[in-house]
Each structure stands twice: as structure tokens, then as C-alpha cells.
Write a structure and sequence with these properties.
The chain has 2 domains: about 5-35; about 55-280, TIM Barrel (Alpha-Beta Barrel), CATH 3.20.20. It contains 11 helices and 6 strands. The chain has helices at about 5-10, 15-35, 40-45, 85-100, 120-130, 150, 195-200, 215-225, 240-245, 265-275, 280, and strands at about 55-60, 105-110, 140-145, 160, 205, 210.
Length: about 290
């Protein structure tokens, strides 16, 4: 399709019909996905999605004041008050400047980012990076909207995405805790393919380091593989080793599968059980997570 015609269509279409088109696109991508993610097709065409080098989601806390079913950061399934430190945010900014990375979009996520005890300091550090080094960077804060007293004080230069959640059952959430590796039909897929979250949301950073997506960081928190990059990856690092590790456990890899009750497959039940024992955090040899 000629570029001018694409631009014309984008300009003319209403938001509603754009959403319909985007749903159609998701439907079609879903339709071909069982074949597209086979090893043989992936070998020929390469992975369906690649990790972003322009956008990043930072899970500044895993604390949350809601307990949604199928939370893909496990805030309901394995509550935690872990926060990123200000030093870690400073390290991220220093690494970005040293590597001359001018992010297109930095999103503060979680958990509920407004629960971070130093949320305003975190924002100030990022605004400073924006003003002094990368004026076109957009900084987002993604919130469930419950912390109104904090939200009122967020500077106007921050774009707030408020999902306005109130209850545990969320329309549109996927079956995150049904691991593809536990289902026969996914056993032989090539997990390097990732999913559209790689493209739509960007790479991830949490208190353990960098991941191809922030969801993978939330999975590592529970399983304890400690496979985060401890330094900002080079642009040509596709992070395939991490995709192979995490996508096989992540329900988003599967065909779009909306669910609003809680369901878990074997791998996740075992992992949460292990996580919930104090032994796991204090003594277990499988606890290998080290800080960013
Ligand atoms: S509000 Fe977000 S982070 Fe909190 S439990 Fe719900 S989905 Fe998870
Ligand atoms: S870990 Fe999950 S969200 Fe991230 S790329 Fe893999 S399937 Fe997608």
C-alpha cells in the first residue's frame, strides 16, 4: 500500500474503527501464530517479535493495593513490597547517557508505582534526564488510580495512564498463569518468538536488572533464575536466552485467551508454593537473584 494512502487512512479513520482494525490485526496474528511459532518456520523467517530498543517499562515496585486475578507481575499470587532503590534508577540513567540512549518512552509500572516510597524522587530523576539529555522522551506512569492523593501531585509533564481498576476480576486479562510448557500443544514451539508485548510495551527493568519485557522480570522474581542482564544490553542483544527461559512459562505466549477468574498450571502452582516458603528466600540454593 503506498505510504500516502496509509497516512490518509490513518488520518481519516475514527478511533472506533482504528480499534476495530487493531482487533482484526490481533485476530489475524493470533490465527497464524500456531504455525508462525513452530521451530521450522521460525528458523526460516526469524522470530515473530523482537525486543524493543526504544521503549522501556520500569517495575519500580511489586507492592500493590489491588489483588487482580492473573496479575502478570504476581502481585496477587505472591505479594511483595520490593522496591527499586533511587541508586538503581540513577544507575539506569547513567547507563542510558553513557550509551547515548535517548528513550522514546519510559514507563513507570509495577505493582502500583504510586506506592513507591520515593515516587516523586524517581520522577524528578527521570525528568532531569529528559530535560538535560533527551528532551523528546515521553515519561509515563501506569496506575490503577487508587492513590488519588499521590496522583494529584504528579507533575503535568508526566503522562498518567489510569486503568481505573476497582475489583479483582479484570476484563481482558489473559491466562498468565497457564504456562505453555504445561500444555502439550506448546511443548515444541520456538519461544524466541516472544509475543506482541515485546513490541507494544518495550523492554523491562526491575531491581534485578534488564529483561526483554517487564513481564519476564516479574516471572524471574518468582522462579529465581537470576538471568537478568546487570547492565543495559547492547542494541544487537536480542535476549534470546531470556525469551527461551521466560516465554515457556508465560501465559501471554499462547493464543489470546481472556479469563477473569484465577487458574494456574502445574509449573506456576509449584513456583508459588516454593516462593511462599521462607526457606526459599533465606536458605534455598535455588534463590539466586542478585540486585541490578
Ligand atoms: S492493579 Fe495491576 S499490578 Fe496491581 S494486582 Fe492489579 S494488575 Fe497487578
Ligand atoms: S515473557 Fe511473556 S510477555 Fe514477555 S515476550 Fe515472553 S510471552 Fe511475551
Amino acid at each position: 500500500m503506498p505510504i500516502f494512502y496509509k497516512k490518509y487512512i490513518k488520518h481519516r479513520l475514527s478511533l472506533k474503527s482504528q480499534t476495530t482494525l487493531s482487533n482484526l490485526r490481533i485476530f489475524l496474528l493470533d490465527l497464524i501464530r500456531p504455525i508462525r511459532t513452530t521451530r521450522i518456520i521460525t528458523k526460516i523467517l526469524g522470530p515473530q517479535y523482537k525486543r524493543s530498543i526504544k521503549d522501556i517499562e520500569i517495575d519500580i515496585t511489586y507492592d500493590c493495593n489491588l489483588r487482580c486475578f492473573n496479575c502478570n507481575r504476581s502481585c496477587r499470587q505472591a505479594p511483595s513490597k520490593e522496591n527499586m532503590s533511587l541508586e538503581q534508577i540513577e544507575k539506569f540513567i547513567k547507563e542510558s547517557i553513557d550509551k547515548n540512549i535517548k528513550w522514546r518512552k519510559i514507563s513507570l509500572v509495577g505493582g502500583e508505582p504510586c506506592l513507591h516510597p520515593n515516587i516523586f524522587e524517581v520522577i524528578n530523576l527521570l525528568l532531569n534526564y529528559k530535560q538535560k539529555f533527551s528532551i523528546n522522551t515521553e515519561i509515563y506512569l501506569v496506575t490503577n488510580g487508587l492513590m488519588k492523593e499521590v496522583l494529584e501531585k504528579i507533575p503535568q509533564s508526566i503522562k498518567v495512564i489510569n486503568s481505573a481498576k476497582e475489583i479483582s476480576a479484570q476484563d481482558g486479562f489473559e491466562s498468565f498463569n497457564i504456562a505453555p510448557i504445561d500444555l502439550k500443544k506448546y511443548k515444541n514451539k520456538d519461544f524466541k518468538n516472544g509475543c506482541r508485548i515485546l513490541k507494544d510495551c518495550g523492554m523491562g527493568l526491575n531491581m534485578y536488572g534488564y529483561y526483554p519485557c517487564a513481564v519476564a522480570g516479574g516471572i524471574d522474581r518468582i522462579f529465581g533464575f537470576n538471568s537478568a542482564r546487570k547492565h543495559l544490553p547492547e542494541k544487537n542483544d536480542q535476549m534470546f536466552d531470556q525469551l527461551n527461559t521466560f516465554c515457556k512459562l508465560c501465559g501471554h505466549f499462547k493464543k489470546h485467551d481472556v479469563i477473569n477468574s484465577e487458574k494456574m498450571s502445574k509449573s506456576w502452582k509449584e513456583a508459588y508454593l516454593k516462593y511462599s516458603t521462607k526457606d526459599f528466600l533465606l536458605k534455598s540454593k535455588s534463590t539466586k537473584l542478585t540486585k541490578y
